[in-house]
Amino acid sequence: MRLSRYFLPVLKETPSEAQIVSHRLMLRAGMIKQASAGIYSWLPLGFKVLRKLENIVHEEQIRAGHIPMLMPTLQSADLWRESGRFDDYGEEMLRIKDRQGRDMLYGPTNEELITDIFRAHVGSYKDLPLTLYHIQWKFRDEIRPRFGVMRGREFLMKDGYNFDVSKEAALHSYNRHLVSYLRTYERMGLQAIPMRADSGPIGGDDTHEFLVLAETGESEVYYDSEITDLRFGEREVDYDSVAECQAVLEEFTSRYARTDETHDEALFNQIPEERRRVARGIEVGQIFYFGTKYSEPLGATVQTRDGASVPVHMGSHGIGVSRLVGAIIEASHDERGIIWPEGVTPFHVGLVNLKQGDAEADAACEAIYGSVLALGLDPLYDDRDERAGGKFATMDLVGLPWRITVGPRGLKNGVVELTSRRTGESEELPPEQAVEKLA
Ligand code: ATP
Ligand code: MG
Ligand code: MG
Ligand code: MG
């Protein structure tokens, strides 16, 4: 992409309404624009990051054997009356009447809708296990929308639902989700710690939230510092193996890590004092096992091998896709701007032409631009007729992992400059070698 033809409305001033750094940087870098309280338009740069996160989520869900689909945002109230949640859900649910006077709602979550699909089409243990998921906009009329996309009213969530013949099988699905989530967050350059949590309006007994540690997080968390040494890394896990998924769950949940809702002071005090941590965290996902909480009232049953009819065992599993954009920035920035982890960056490299209009500099930039594209990477070329200082400030704000700087002086010696956004270190290299380093 050439900046002269892109739409990147960066702001010079720090917007006064933004209280936390990710919100400020998303506004300043031209990623989002508020449409109304808690509702945002995703401008091209923000949209690109959102799409990258969606892709990672899809890839990791499909790897785990989960099946993508798409359910609507608007739902009929009837199903929610069947489950009893139409009244229970409270003010967070946005209720709408259509022209026929029918009660509708903008889905805050999808347990009812998916259970209705299941009961219409599945009746036998032979069709199980089954996990369906989608990535779709949700609406929750949050009492205090704030922090930009971190607590929006309209937000993008991946929500997945497992259907199993028994509690035992459903707990394997739970573990499989835990493993897939660990992989997902690590690919985004994040450490998200599974913590024992409270199930809230979804209901159920077993639940973990995934939290990214950050001072601006809204949750208070208590944990054993040893947990922050754990990495999922490159390991291959067989998602069909009950033992392998169980082992990962045990490894990642055996140390004390809880949100304030489930915190137990006596248990916490059993950890050696120097390892006790009280901190704040951002909830970026949650997994639930809730058994037959929805299948019973909605009559979603399956025939077992012995011919008995039993309500199907379920769980639901959410990732806050749009919130993650903010969470990644909270975890990765400096005073000059965003620092994107490689896996989610909107462009791989920024190309800065120090003297736009200089025949040699322009030609060198064009050649580099072409060879970056040929590698299958995405360059952002600042080809505007602007001062170098302004171009550098924009690149730092936007936070691409690499910058290639091209100017007449370097070209005389046959070199360009390759700079790492994270370390600030620069190297002078012939153009071809600078491009090779990106691959
Ligand atoms: P919170 O405690 O922050 O209100 P939640 O527990 O109500 O979140 P879940 O029902 O667990 O949310 O939804 C799954 C994920 O969706 C959450 O882990 C979070 O990442 C994301 N999410 C929930 N509410 C919002 C929101 N208002 N804005 C952006 N993302 C959200
Ligand atoms: Mg909530
Ligand atoms: Mg929560
Ligand atoms: Mg939650």
From TrEMBL:
Catalytic reaction(s) noted: tRNA(Pro) + L-proline + ATP = L-prolyl-tRNA(Pro) + AMP + diphosphate
The protein's enzyme class: ligase
Annotated compartments: Cytoplasm
SUPFAM superfamilies tied to this protein: Class II aaRS ABD-related, Class II aaRS and biotin synthetases
Pfam families cross-referenced by the UniProt entry: HGTP_anticodon, tRNA-synt_2b
Gene Ontology cellular component terms for the protein in this record: cytosol
E.C. numbers: 6.1.1.15
Record's keyword terms, sorted: Aminoacyl-tRNA synthetase, ATP-binding, Cytoplasm, Ligase, Nucleotide-binding, Protein biosynthesis
Segments forming domain Aminoacyl-transfer RNA synthetases class-II family profile: 33-341
GO terms for MF: ATP binding; proline-tRNA ligase activity
Any Gene Ontology biological process: prolyl-tRNA aminoacylation
PROSITE patterns named among the record's database cross-references: AA_TRNA_LIGASE_II (PS50862)
HAMAP family cross-referenced by the UniProt entry: Pro_tRNA_synth_type2 (MF_01570)
Function in brief: Catalyzes the attachment of proline to tRNA(Pro) in a two-step reaction: proline is first activated by ATP to form Pro-AMP and then transferred to the acceptor end of tRNA(Pro).
Record note on quaternary structure: Homodimer.
Family: Belongs to the class-II aminoacyl-tRNA synthetase family. ProS type 2 subfamily.
Protein name in UniProt: Proline--tRNA ligase
Chain's gene name: proS
